[in-house]
């Protein structure tokens, strides 16, 4: 089939997210200017550069009490920092609990019964049990086409890796099973990996 997005797809559900999949989940923790903390998952998330290391996530949609955006972007706009926590299979239910449309006063760490640990390079908490957490300083918030679509870019200033996911000095995804977002209500976990050598590499 072929369709133009402006004309509609004619399917029971929008296939776009199912086409661009799997996508890593950035579990973004932030602190507001008033000291309240927020934790929310974003599947439009990825690493975008090595040197210096940088990540991005995109927020779509808005809450009526957040001036045209969501809690995460509003907090980052105020404080200039955020932490991108990675999600493993064991944390799937807690992650899902933090995805609800909660009011800005709700502390998602407490709501999902998650332990938090202060970050080392920024004034923000991270998810203690996360397999890895990336402390970030905001570099840009870019408005995207469409209502309440924002791209958030940050430089990674601190990296936490859970010791148990390292094997021979390398991160082994088969130990912790990273969770990824598919389309619709679907998720996937990594159970198997394989290697390929690029042309020209030894």
Automatic annotation (TrEMBL):
<dbReference type="InterPro" id="IPR012349">
    <property type="entry name" value="Split_barrel_FMN-bd"/>
</dbReference>
<feature type="domain" description="Flavin reductase like">
    <location>
        <begin position="18"/>
        <end position="170"/>
    </location>
</feature>
<protein>
    <submittedName>
        <fullName>Flavin reductase</fullName>
    </submittedName>
</protein>
<dbReference type="InterPro" id="IPR002563">
    <property type="entry name" value="Flavin_Rdtase-like_dom"/>
</dbReference>
<dbReference type="Pfam" id="PF01613">
    <property type="entry name" value="Flavin_Reduct"/>
</dbReference>
<dbReference type="GO" id="GO:0016646">
    <property type="term" value="F:oxidoreductase activity, acting on the CH-NH group of donors, NAD or NADP as acceptor"/>
</dbReference>
<dbReference type="GO" id="GO:0010181">
    <property type="term" value="F:FMN binding"/>
</dbReference>
